[in-house]
Amino acid sequence: MSNGPRWIAVAIAFIVSLPTSGLEARHFSWLGHGPCPQQPCDRLVPRGFTALGEFTPKTWALLDEAASPGRPEERTEMLRTPEGRDIARVTVAFRRRLDDAGAGRLRDGRIVNIAEKLGGEFRYLVVPNAPFGLGSPGYRLVPYRTVVVQARRVPLGSVLYIPALVGMLLPNGEVHDGFCFAHDTDPALTASRIGLFVGFDPDDSPTLKPLTSARTIQVYRVSPMTATTLNRRFKAQFDWTD
């Protein structure tokens, strides 16, 4: 063996022998998924992260009227604001789905969110500066970052680490680093399920196959210091108060 290969072998042995904390520092770069110093990289969980247990994953997309607009004469349902102002006429079928989903994109591109229920009718707000609508309580929905949770098990606002998402190639070309935000809740969601918001992407997207094919996934709450770092980095994307 020449000196070159021998030194390469020594270097590899040294890297493998590094403590986990050293690997974590190289792996979790907060922006995208860097080169993995060891495999499988989704098993690297930094110290201070709290295991919340296993969850059954699901995905959910924003309702889009353009996908099933219906004929003009079928648009007999008027969406109204809490003050009673008209927003748009939609079909009965779309209104039913919108009332169930709580948010959607109208055929003219406007985003509407449920505001309250008055006299048995859901009233809506036209939401500016939130291209995918709002979660609860008032966070912008961010595709592949927002997750819906059952708030009794996962407190709203929690910053989460989901190893199953690590390395997922996203539609915008980025690679997921596994970090998400518990910024929405659904009363119908059981405590054993967690949902990833995917914008307008279909459930059968190849991107989502690693997630949708999994029976359960492990979820962690990140350490306070990590949460502070990630909240600061992504604030411009999810903070609707700005």
What structural class is derived from the secondary structure elements? alpha+beta
Number of helices: 5
Average pLDDT reading? 82
Query: How much strand?
Result: 25-35%
Ends distance: 62 Å
Query: What's the oligomerization state?
Result: single chain
Helix share of residues? 10-25%
How would you summarize what this structure contains?
21% of the residues lie in helices and 26% in strands.
Could you explain the architecture of this structure?
The chain is of the alpha+beta class and 242 residues long. The protein folds into two domains: 32-62 and 132-238, Barwin-like endoglucanases (Beta Barrel), CATH 2.40.40; 63-126, no CATH class. It is built from five helices and twelve strands. A six-stranded mixed barrel has the order 1-11-8-10-9-12. Strands 2-5-6-7 form a four-stranded mixed beta sheet, covered by helices on one side. The protein has a two-stranded antiparallel ribbon with strand order 3-4. A hairpin with a 2-residue loop joins strand 6 (111-118) and strand 7 (121-126). The longest helix has 15 residues, at 224-238. The termini are far apart. The relative contact order is 0.18. The model is unreliable at 7-27 and 29-35 (pLDDT under 50).
